């Protein structure tokens, strides 16, 4: 493995349906990826077994705490050394340490809420700081945009949520 990683991140909007699960996970098997992050899986802890798909790699989850809500699933290619370091009980954050050839990186996989984002990002930042890592990668559904003008072109313009200050401060 070189310094580059092939990553896919998708808000899946539920994987409770066996048919949808087979279709999506089957398609992902055809991709040449190192990391796959799925947000909004809607799978509870008791049903995690349905997400096991060895062809996709090692499975890590932050399951939904309620049916039809939240949840994250992450697949890491088998050859990549990985350690699970944090799972949010609300199905919103999953953190892994991943060893690349010349460095260790803290990956934070997120599914941000629509409401109370300022609080969510403040808590995420505090959790990241706890690990004292200088190499950090945040992947997932931020449920917001960086800048309205840069994210929307053309005629269709809907009002979308701008990333809160607490999120932007993490990147300083």
From TrEMBL:
Annotated binding of Mg(2+), by residue: 11, 40, 141, 143
Co-factor remark: Probably binds two magnesium or manganese ions per subunit.
EC annotation from Swiss-Prot or TrEMBL: 3.1.11.2
Gene Ontology CC annotations of this record: nucleus
Coiled-coil ranges per UniProt: none
Site (Transition state stabilizer): 143
Top EC group: hydrolase
Cofactor: Mg(2+); Mn(2+)
Keywords associated with the record: DNA damage, DNA repair, Hydrolase, Magnesium, Manganese, Metal-binding
Recorded GO MF terms: DNA-(apurinic or apyrimidinic site) endonuclease activity; double-stranded DNA 3'-5' DNA exonuclease activity; metal ion binding; phosphoric diester hydrolase activity
Biological process terms in GO annotation: base-excision repair
SUPFAM superfamilies, A to Z: DNase I-like
Transferase keyword on record: no
Catalyzed chemical reaction(s): Exonucleolytic cleavage in the 3'- to 5'-direction to yield nucleoside 5'-phosphates
Superkingdom, natural source: Eukaryota
Domain Endonuclease/exonuclease/phosphatase: 9-153
UniProt keyword annotation of Transmembrane present: no
PANTHER family xrefs: AP ENDONUCLEASE (PTHR22748), DNA-(APURINIC OR APYRIMIDINIC SITE) ENDONUCLEASE 2 (PTHR22748:SF27)
Family note: Belongs to the DNA repair enzymes AP/ExoA family.
Protein name listed in UniProt: exodeoxyribonuclease III
Organism whose genome encodes this protein: Micrurus spixii (Amazon coral snake)
Lineage: Eukaryota, Metazoa, Chordata, Craniata, Vertebrata
